[in-house]
Amino acid sequence: MKNRIPSSATMLLTLIMTNTHVLAASQPWLDSDKSSDHRAKLLQQDLTLEEQIRRVHGEMAMPILGFTVPDGAIGSAGFVPADTTRGIPALQITDASLGVANPANVRPGDGGTPLPSGLSSAASWNPKVAYDGGQMIGHEAWSKGFNVMLAGGVNLARDPRNGRNFEYFGEDPLLAGTMAGENIKGIQSQHVLSTIKHFAMNDQETARMGMSAVIGERSLSESDLLAFQIAIERGQPGAVMCGYNRVNGIHACDNADLLQRILKDRWGYRGFVMSDWGSVHGVEAAMHGVDIEMGTQLDKWLFGDVFFEKPLLAKAEQDQVYRTRLGEMSQRVLRSMFDVGLFEHPPVKTPIDYAASKAVAQQAAEEGMVLLRNEKHALPLNGATKKILVVGGNADKGVLSAAGSSQVVEPEGAGLVIPTGGEGQFASLREMVWHRSSPLKALKEELPDAVITFNDGRNSGEAAALAKNADVVIVFATQWMMESYDTYDLELPSGQNGLIDALASANAKTIVVLETGGPISMPWLNKTAAVMQAWYPGAGGGKAIARTLTGKVNPSGRLPITFPADLKQLPRPVVPGFGGPENAKIDVDYNIEGADVGYKWFARKNINPLFPFGFGLSYTQFKYDGLKVEKTSPLTVSFNVTNIGKLTGQDVPQLYLTGMPGRAQQRLLGWNKIELRAGESRSITLQVDSRLLADFDVKAQRWSVAPGAYALGLGHSATEFVSQRHVDLPKQDFADPVVSR
Ligand code: BGC
Fold this sequence. Notes:
The protein is an alpha/beta fold.
């Protein structure tokens, strides 16, 4: 007779199936076959007002300024607790675009792999570099238990002195938007929700809490907002972070015009708006478009309350308008959590293959190296170079990084830390951190037959005396940057210009490697043999530098930001409000350049920069021909690229608009990064985003292409064109594309 009692395994299975069935019936939002919208709506309807309130505010989770880390938080930028009854996971939130941060060492000794700076990634002009970097840091975040990264900084570099340019992707909306979008896509591929930031016009750190960016809607739409729009379309970030600054007099996190009218209504953004830490000034921010208040201890400390807690609850209890809005806020948060897969793919603490991560960072750094000067083929270094003097930059210890919320420290700890001192809110963050990848060590590995000596460069006379006996001198120059501070000018600090000058006077074969947050001036340029911009090159930076100097890597980076010849060339020769308090209520007039940021300003003013946007040399050369424009919609442009040099290399042919009906107007329209062997040719086809041929018509709230002749230029940079074409376009008006899926 058959045993009719089920086995324990069958019993367990039956139990699980019954439970799942019961759960699916009672908690239908857990059914992943339903759309994110549907699931969020179902879940939202099940929440009481108090429970909705719990979804829309979160504390800071770092032990700074005397604040404690909330229970249940892993420790990093922020935390929103779980709702275990409903199966809603906690939000474990970490900074930022360059890797997993560990502020104030809140998770003792838990480092992450630092990517190169955003400007370095942008200099690769390779969307895959941004995607792979995002995927790597997203994976590390997930493996440490985080499901939100405050990543995808896309503020345009309107000022080369901006202390946070290193976190962003340069001065052009198409380039920055594309790269930020790919970065976000990579992060979210790991089921880590990415928060694009800082919306919008958070373009200088001086007076960052109080300054008002004064700019008209047309200029705004064609510049900084376009960068956000492109990045959101491409990356589909779950959240948008509103900035500290004001825009046209109103704080970005209170700015209904930006958050509601433009982001949510005009563009159709369906994710949620997250406040920056300490940027909600009152409960009305909820009515102005903010969906979640983060870093709440800071709001309480600075402005007196946690506004999206008791004050918002009180309003929602009394007022239907607030009640409806609260429902929408928590529903938006939940929708993005479903959409990015936070329910189905909760982070699992998993060992990380840091060697694999470092390889991703090194690859990015290699693609971001920009060779700015190479007289008489000084580079690559060859086997004949026997005596090399390496000077300065703590190149024996590692490569420099920049500070602030995006600071990442490697798992093994920093190679070198130099506190810079000072007082105030950010005093504890004011540390210069070198990642461990030493360029000196890497050069010795790449050139085992050379005699390589190091001099720290503190005494330029001593370094110059040693330089006389070297075949080649490689000097490392550094410029440290930090969130909340802009630089005063573009000078290399601490007498480094004098050092480079002395070295170049002593030895004509002086090669300068720059580890800087952005553009600097180069009074010694003409005396040097070569200059390579290495930015902050991240975890594999030393190796990337050595491999590029020695020709294992053929440099393929192109500048994502103009290097001015002189501060007088800038729309604002002095940083407005420099040296004043961070909450100073100043106006910064961005209508001066309007949408003509960076190279567009230089073209409009007809002035020559030190190095133009898009510029970068290679160890080989490329030729372009066969430029063809087809009047399709969108416009199709094709051309051929040939490697006419002797080495394999990657090139970045760039297509620009140079004139519109009735006016000269420069805009990057497209590019491609391709690798070609010596002698190889390839045909490239680009499709032009119609917004780049249009003006934004504020009155009609749509893009408008004027009928008439458009001039296009194909070239190596924003100032070096090899081929031009004209095309007549008919009038065309069109609305914004919808940014969210
Ligand atoms: C920064 C943000 C950062 C946040 C959380 C703020 O000071 O502006 O970029 O994500 O802190 O650390």
